[in-house]
Amino acid sequence: MASSSAVFRKNFVPPTLPPKVSGAIKGEVVVAVDSALWNANSAAARATKPLPSPCIRLLWWGEAGRGTLFRPHPCADDHEFAIRSANSAAATMGTTAVAVRQDIEPLAGDAGFNRVAFPVCCSRTHFLAYLQDMKTISFDVFDSTERIALGTASLPTAALIDGAGRTDEFLSIVNDESVVIGRLHVSISACISSSCCNHT
User: Fold this and answer.
1) Which domain covers residue 116, as residue numbers?
2) Would you place residue 144 in the very low, low, confident or very high pLDDT band (cuts 50, 70, 90)?
3) Which has the closest alpha carbon to 8: 108, 97, 119?
4) Domains in the chain, number
5) What DSSP character marks residue 159?
6) 139 vs 6, which has greater pLDDT?
7) What's 69-124 look like in SS3?
8) What CATH code is carried by the domain that includes residue 18?
9) Residue 198 domain-assigned (yes or no)
């Protein structure tokens, strides 16, 4: 019998953007979440041995579904992060993401990857307007083993608009006490025309 995570992978279809907008596909938004770097002195890093196994949930503004799950590499310090980042490129290129229920029960086990392409069904102008209305892209961070929420990493959509549809940066993971417990490496590339959607 196939595992539940295998079924999620097989059946997962990325939601189109903007949510609830139908029409011809005009491009794509590729989101990659490849590493979570925990602060050495944070409670998340100290309380869990080994390090928390992070699952990241992305729910687009206006999306009525259950979101998309990413599983980045957990790292304890900058040295380990550099090693994992250098060795993870081949592993990230062919990966996908899987759907997640609204509770965190499915976060346990081997489910989730770190790169997914979301089809865009509107013009570049309309998509930029969607980003402006959204204001922030939020990544909810969970410990998949303990099934608990750890914090949220937020990306202002202005980073995409000002960066001509591309951004690659570390986002602070902030817990519910407004304490930065780590950083999340996120890259997003928006390509809203047939001529530029040739990602490798």
Assistant:
1) 4-191
2) confident
3) 97
4) 1
5) H
6) 139
7) EECCEEECCHHHHHHHHHHCHHHHHCCCCEECCCCCHHHCCCCCECEEEEEECCCH
8) 2.60.40.150
9) no
